[in-house]
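[audit] Reproducing an earlier prediction to check determinism. Same input, same settings, fresh worker. If the tokens differ from the archived copy the diff job will pick it up downstream; this log only records the rerun itself.
[audit] input (142 residues):
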Amino acid sequence: MERYVLDATVVRTALCNPDGPSAYLISEALSDNVVLLTSCPLFTEYESHCMAPAIWQPSGLVAWQAGEFLDGLAALMRTVTFPAGWLPKLKDVVCELSLLTAVHGDADAVVSLAQPQYGEACNRFDVALLSPQQAVGRLNHG
């Protein structure tokens, strides 16, 4: 079974577009077709992204809906822990947390809408870097 780390851009998009590929990945986890990994620091970033009114208001959502989305996501994901002392490889701290979670969680891929910010870092750790559409295709085509 594939093991994915969703970066904060994908989680935010899933919240605002329940019919898109980002949300589809979460529904696949609900059906036990994929394992979604997170870490406490990465989930804090999800909360930061999703609880900002500027994110959920344009989609017609209210704060409690964003909170329930995050509660459900937290219950669904497997939490990865990692030791202190990681040396930064990326300029973006949120991408760094996604990569760190993927490496220590033995993930198959980081799923991101911000792929250029990862550069070649995922390759160095033998972790695929996929868009949500690529991840969905990979799940649906084995």
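[audit] rerun output stored. Observation attached for the diff report: The mean pLDDT is 92.
[audit] end
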